[in-house]
Amino acid sequence: MSSELQMIVDVTSRIFEDHQTEERHVDAWDAELWNLLETTGLSGVASLDTHDDGAGRLRECAAILRVAGRFAVSVPLAEHYLSTWLLSKFGLPVPSGPLTFAVSSGLDVRRSGEVWRVSGTISRVPWAGIARCIVVIGRSEEDEVLMTIFPPDRGVVVGHNVAGEPRDDVVIDIKLGANRVAKLKPGTTRAIQLRSALYKVALIAGATERAFELSLNYVGERIQFGRAIGSFQVVQHQIAEMAGEVLALRTACDAAVECCITESPLRWPMLLAVASAKSQAGRSATVIARTSHQLHGAIGFTYEHSLRMSTTRLWAWRDECGSETYWANEVGSHLLGTEDELWAALVGADSGDLRVREDICENVEAGVQHGN
Amino acid sequence: MSERRSVATEKLTSLLVNPWEAQYRSLRAEVRDFIDAETLAGNIVRRCDAWLSGWDEEFSRKLGRRGWIGITIPVEFGGHGRSALERYVVTEELLAAGAPVAAHWITDRQVVPSLLRYGTEFQKRRFLPIIAKGDCYFAIGLSEPDAGSDLAAVQTRAQRVHGGWLLTGTKLWTSGAHRAHALTVLARSGRRGEGNRHAGLTQFIVEIPSEGLSIRPIRLLTGEHHFNEVVFEDVFVRDELVLGGIGDGWAQVTSELAFERSGPERWLSTFPLFASLIDHLQDEPTCNSDVKQVTGVLATRIWVFRQMSMSIAAAIERGEVPNVPSAVVKDAGTRFEGELIEMIRQLRDFESYSDDDGIRSLFESAVTHSPGYTLRGGTNEVLRGVVARALGVS
Q1: What is the pTM of this model?
Q2: Which of B22, B311, B389 sits opposite A352 (nearest CB)?
């Protein structure tokens, strides 16, 4: 990690640490923390208004999200990063946050002249109820389109994931002027899907690290049979297995981020990288949640104990943005469909090649202007 | 949460990811061309666990001529003065192809770094040039009848005599000793220290044949001959073949572990089975979802292991000693080698296929070699102990 990135991580950690004291676990929307993120500028990292490194400051975003996952914060930071990145990428005004984001195949999107008619329900949109704007990717008969949906335009049916984070159903039945809709070239949705999966990987990596550290501390403190339970070999082996999962996920996360910085989202190496990282995140989440609870015994199974802040998120997040099953199928389909020999497909001879990024910005057909 | 603990954990369970592959694209392409040509000529027949069982001296000499053995040996000692990352690229390609690399494998992986680090000028000049040519193979004498996982319990004795040492004892599970030209031996040259069982151990180089040295086969459960029992009855080792410092044996042996434990051979031993299956499935018109699922799971796991191995290789190249990540890769990677076999077994009803495509043979050799994956080079249980201790859990 570069020293600049390390500094961002340190600052972010300190902000979250100071904000979240032991006796204060916030489960609901943490407006106070959001204000803090806005005043410190941390919420604006993915907005390209001031600085674009060509990759949407992916390294910084992933590093901050890993810290956010570690501290189990109750704000839609990943969704906000994704939304602001998209809007600024397309040269659209970025409303004040928090923003959220959804890809929907179920929406009915039709164009008639200068007006778009959009109706239907998008299920399980993160934080839809509190978001100032929902950036929605949908499909009309011909095109992938990006739309911005503001509170007056939508109804919300409140829902939650197992960690208690809002996952709301959003009901839409509106007409949008052409200035609120941008047509995207095919493949853009894939690029966005990969980035959102990668953000989830970073969050999960942070949460596994926290659950692991809680477990490490606990097995050193908890005395049974007259000695710390960490002195039992069977416990040591569980700790070692957890360490392996933490390391594998952390490495996969960092490597996938690097791959996304050099690779085009429409090329196979990036799909393989993100699919592998998200699959690893799913596996690590499962092992870490299970083992950390086993090591903590009954106390970790309570509402009062902070372990649940990490483990409930691990259970929820491993299925969001594509489970292991989903990504394995994507990768399997490619490998079985290609002519390439397996090893050559996994390790391209040009692997890591720095090539011209296919900028998704160039995929936008119609720009949009709107005020709100 | 104690801040200090968090920092220590972070250090032990994270690796700096800094992609370096692109630098060696042309080397990778060169190795692939060579492998293609050798496969076409029938000199490479894809096999599992080829780094243990694929002994082909002619093939090793070919690699030596191309400069792909002892890559890191300086030019003045007959090597090529290239980086460990280049060695990584070459070995990974050979393993994935299931090429017969067993003859020089252990020598290239462990003996070369040992000689470079601890060898005398005499030893380097004597061994390194012929190793780099692919003409000299070493075996490694560590385990004994009463010293397996507990390596510090070695009882082979080194007794000081005029001009050298006399070795007496027995080494066990010594791979390839019956075809090797020399072996390194960890022996007790002095007393254990007070409360320090690692003191008093020294490494020696014993040339084969030597007077008083006898080598007997111990067959694998398949009947194959790789392991040996090596018996030393007053074998004389002259002073110039003491490897490293007297009493430094333990530190020397353990310092190379990161290198030995983190390489691609810890997760690629059964890859040739997977590769052959995919070759075969690509020709089939339809694939059910189970096939896609298993293919995807295996491929994504391989991708992750690769990223870890490459990051560790880069850390070693920077002069770091990433022992915890290395132990983690070996523990998880070798378990994966077995899991791969089982997942493919669930997928394919081997009894209802002929072996025209050779996949069943690959499967059978992968299964029958599987006990070795999680035992060799330190059992996985020992590795987990290493990880836990490093994290302060003991």
Answers
A1: 0.95
A2: B22
Amino acid at A42: L
Residue A372 domain flag = no
Q: In angstroms, rounded to a whole number, what is the distance separating the alpha carbons of residues B117 and B99?
A: 29
Q: What is the ipTM of this complex?
A: 0.95
pLDDT, mean of residues B122-133:
98
Q: Do B307 and A212 touch (CB under 8 A)?
A: no
CB contact under 8 A, B278 and A335: yes
Q: Which amino acid appears at position B363 of this protein?
A: F
Euclidean distance between CA atoms B52 and A301, whole angstroms: 47
Task: Report which of residues B257 and A126 the model is more confident about.
Answer: A126
Distances from the Cα of B387 to the Cα of A207, A369, B333, angstroms: 21, 56, 15
Q: What tens digit of pLDDT does each residue of B314-367 get? A: 999 998 889 999 999 999 999 999 999 999 999 888 888 888 889 999 999 999
A180 with A283, same domain? Answer: no
Residues B36 and B114 both lie in one domain: yes
The domain boundary, picked from B137, B171, B188, lies at B137
In this structure, the strands spanning B182-188 and B138-141 are parallel
Residues on chain B touching A209 (C-beta within 8 angstroms): 9-10, 13
Q: Which long-range contacts (CB under 8 A, 24 or more apart) does A43-48 make?
A: A43/A77, A43/A80, A43/A97, A43/A98, A44/A84, A45/A81, A46/A80, A46/A81, A46/A82, A46/A84, A46/A85, A46/A88, A47/A84, A47/A85, A47/A88, A47/A94, A48/A85, A48/A88, A48/A89
Kindly state the average pLDDT of the residues B282-305: 92
The rounded distance, in Å, linking the Cα atoms of B377 and B253 is 11
The full DSSP string for A204-244 is HHHHHHHHHHHHHHHHHH-EETTEEGGGSHHHHHHHHHHHH
Q: What is the pLDDT of residues B17-68, one digit of tens each?
A: 989 999 999 999 999 999 999 999 999 999 999 999 999 999 999 999 999 9
Identify the closest residue of chain A to B9 by CA–CA distance: A213
Q: How far apart are CA A292 and CA A313, in angstroms?
A: 13
* DSSP code of residue B253: H
The residue segments making up the domain with residue B244 are: 141-248
CATH number for position A72: 2.40.110.10
